[in-house]
């Protein structure tokens, strides 16, 4: 296997945490292609660590669904199918609008300002066609909108799903051509409802946005723009 673009591990913090973060970032940025075999020993060599933290990190990433068992006890980068994408968006459509609804009464002007900055950042990424960075900014925006949700379990599930959605995006499951501009319009509308304290409208727009994104992605299934 050709050496992937992963920086060697340095510093005194937990090796396991550092290795997990490095491998997670590599998977979510498309360094590895779906179906690639991941070799524990080679990764340990690239990262300049022992096999133990690599093994622990790979186990955690398997639990997240980013890695999967392969033939002869090997480990492969997971492949994302339509059923997985459909189920992820169904769960997201159930939970995220509810999380936004719960968060709206607690949103302040500082959070709204941060959200606007994220949308401006996403716009810059979109114009440059930096799709991975665009996806990241969009997901940061969505997470910020439900940050004040009073149900920690809902937030935990949604935050964990972020990785799976990002992985789906870099695996080829993206939106339709030039959709980022339309998605920005939808994001702005959701943010305005949040800023105005309109709980029902924020919840409705959030659900419609997620459902439209899901339909576009499943109907197109081609690497074009970004997962909303």
Summarize the structure.
This protein has helices at 15-28, 40-47, 51-63, 82-103, 109-128, 131-145, 152-170, 179-195, 199-220, and strands spanning 37-38, 67-69, 75-77. The protein has 228 residues and is mostly helical.
Low-confidence parts = none
Number of helices: 9
Order of helices and strands: HEHHEEHHHHHH
The fraction of residues in strands falls at under 5%
- Under the CATH scheme, the architecture of the largest domain is Up-down Bundle
Radius of gyration, CA atoms, in whole angstroms: 18 Å
Describe the structure.
The structure is a single chain. Helices cover 66% and strands 4% of the residues. It is mostly helical. The longest helix is centred in the middle third of the chain and has 22 residues, at 82-103. The chain is elongated. The chain has a three-stranded antiparallel beta sheet with strand order 1-3-2. The chain has two domains: 15-77, Winged helix-like DNA-binding domain superfamily/Winged helix DNA-binding domain (Arc Repressor Mutant, subunit A, Orthogonal Bundle); 82-220, Up-down Bundle (Four Helix Bundle (Hemerythrin (Met), subunit A)).
Summarize the helices and strands and which ones pair or pack.
Layout: H1 15-28, E1 37-38, H2 40-47, H3 51-63, E2 67-69, E3 75-77, H4 82-103, H5 109-128, H6 131-145, H7 152-170, H8 179-195, H9 199-220
Antiparallel strand pairs: 1-3, 2-3
Helix pairs in contact: 1-3, 2-3, 4-7, 4-9, 5-6, 5-8, 6-7, 8-9
Top keywords for this entry?
228 residues, mainly alpha, Arc Repressor Mutant, subunit A, Four Helix Bundle (Hemerythrin (Met), subunit A), three-stranded antiparallel beta sheet, 4% strand, elongated
């Amino acid at each position: 296997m050709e050496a992937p673009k992963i920086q060697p591990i340095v510093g005194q913090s937990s090796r396991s945490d550092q290795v997990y973060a490095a491998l997670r970032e590599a998977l979510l940025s498309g360094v590895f292609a779906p179906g690639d075999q991941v070799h524990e020993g080679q990764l340990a060599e690239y990262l300049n660590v022992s096999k133990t933290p690599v093994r622990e990190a790979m186990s955690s990433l398997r639990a997240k669904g980013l890695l999967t068992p392969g033939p002869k006890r090997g480990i492969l980068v997971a492949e994302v199918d339509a059923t997985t994408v459909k189920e992820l968006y169904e769960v997201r459509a159930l939970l995220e609008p509810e999380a936004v609804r719960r968060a709206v009464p607690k949103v302040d002007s500082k959070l709204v300002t941060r959200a606007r900055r994220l949308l401006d950042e996403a716009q810059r990424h979109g114009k440059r066609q930096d799709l991975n960075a665009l996806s990241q900014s969009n997901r940061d925006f969505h997470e910020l909108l439900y940050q004040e949700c009073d149900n920690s379990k809902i937030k935990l599930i949604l935050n964990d799903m972020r990785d799976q959605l990002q992985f789906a995006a870099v695996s080829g499951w993206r939106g339709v051509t030039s959709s980022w501009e339309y998605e920005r319009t939808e994001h702005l509308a959701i943010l305005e409802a949040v800023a105005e304290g309109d709980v029902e409208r924020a919840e409705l727009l959030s659900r419609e946005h997620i459902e439209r994104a899901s339909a576009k992605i499943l109907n197109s299934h081609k690497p074009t723009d970004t997962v909303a």
